[in-house]
Amino acid sequence: MMHLGWFVGRGFSVHGWKQDWWGDEALDWTNPDIYVALAQALDRACFDYMMIEDGSLVPDAYEGSSRAYLQHAVTVPKADPMPLVPLLGQATKGLGIIATMTTAFYPPYLGARLAATLDHLTRGRAGINLVTAHNDRAAQNFGLDRHHEHDKRYEMASEWIEVVDKLWASWQPGAIRADRGAGVFADNSKVRPIDHEGAHYRCRGPLNLPAGPQGRPVVCQAGGSPAGRSFAARHADTIIALVRDVGEAKAYRSDITAKLAEWGRQPDSCKVLFCISVVLGETVAEAAERKRRRQVALATDLEPRLAALSFFGARDLSSSNSNWLFGCISLTV
Ligand SMILES: Cc1cc2nc3c(=O)[nH]c(=O)nc-3n(C[C@H](O)[C@H](O)[C@H](O)COP(=O)(O)O)c2cc1C
Q1: Distance between CA 76 and CA 213 in Å, rounded?
Q2: Ligand 1, closest atom to CA 231?
Q3: Which DSSP letter does residue 59 get?
Q4: Which of 301, 242, 277, 276 lies closest to 74 in space, CA to CA?
Q5: Model confidence at 331, in pLDDT bands (50, 70, 90)?
Q6: pLDDT tens digit string along 187-201?
């Protein structure tokens, strides 16, 4: 069976504000209507889910300043996607709504509680895209001087989801009796502390609400490194991956299948979706012409792209003319 997801790659943010057809977006970018319309279209088209990107910082990787990011609306402003989830759930019937949650910055209790609440509000259609975040500037918004080292972030994330899983399971089935005759709403014997004491987290529990209809909301992941893929293979229900061609996609899927087996999971227990960017036209020629015009527009408006690359690559490209720079541009244009 084919599975389809839509990745809202800029998150709850400003999208095409320089383009004529975006109307008032520049002034009204927090208006949720466009996300609702998108979700409804995806619902009609029987997509499995919509996944909304997120991050919690104003970058300054380019020129050591936030100037370019703010001037071009690159990764900022960005609103929290979580409150969009029930709005989109309310406006759709079958679409899964996945929003990004950073394991490094969300205390597991709050993460478990929020995801369970969203699962109730969407009647069992919520998911969380678990990321570890990669930027020191983001870490500094949460009390750290520097972010933890890459693989340690995944080690922590693994314990994080372990705690969250325990919290979601801390209300046993049938815990809510709502028995007016007996005067019992919930059965104390079926709501138990988790008493988690690990290397990175301590949490008593139980959660102060039962898990939602799914029990465990869908867990999405997008790790590319061995540690990221291993984390995904252990904990995720779906992965979205960036690859350049069919060969890379096959290799990625084989690697995940092998890693799933290492964790005692079946290949089909995790759906791997590969990102593509589609240009539409009435004819192939029209689509090709649109793609050409888009590439020209991108090439003549380079600073936003360099600022974005500086952020993702954690390397200031404002003055560099290295081969590395050209390598990056040819990969991403
Ligand atoms: C399609 C896709 C979506 C992603 N969405 C986010 C996101 O919303 N927030 C974020 O901080 N990182 C996001 N990432 C980054 C990944 O979580 C991950 O850190 C990255 O792919 C590098 O892999 P690694 O962490 O295993 O090194 C995304 C990556 C991909 C490929």
Answers
A1: 34
A2: 26
A3: -
A4: 301
A5: very low
A6: 999 999 999 999 999
Question: CB of 83 within 8 A of CB of 36?
Answer: no
Enter the DSSP assignment of 188: G
**What's 175's DSSP letter?**
-
- Give this prediction's pTM: 0.94
Closest listed residue to residue 127, CA positions, set 203, 200, 213, 206: 213
Chain centroid offset of residue 117 CA? 18
Residues 248 and 242: their CA atoms lie apart, in Å, by 9
Pocket of ligand 1 (CB under 6 A): 7, 53-55, 100, 129, 131, 133-134, 222-225, 227-228, 240, 242, 275
The 3 state secondary structure assigned to 218-257 is EEEECCCCHHHHHHHHHHCCEEEECCCCHHHHHHHHHHHH
Q: Which residue has the tokens 């969380």?
A: 128
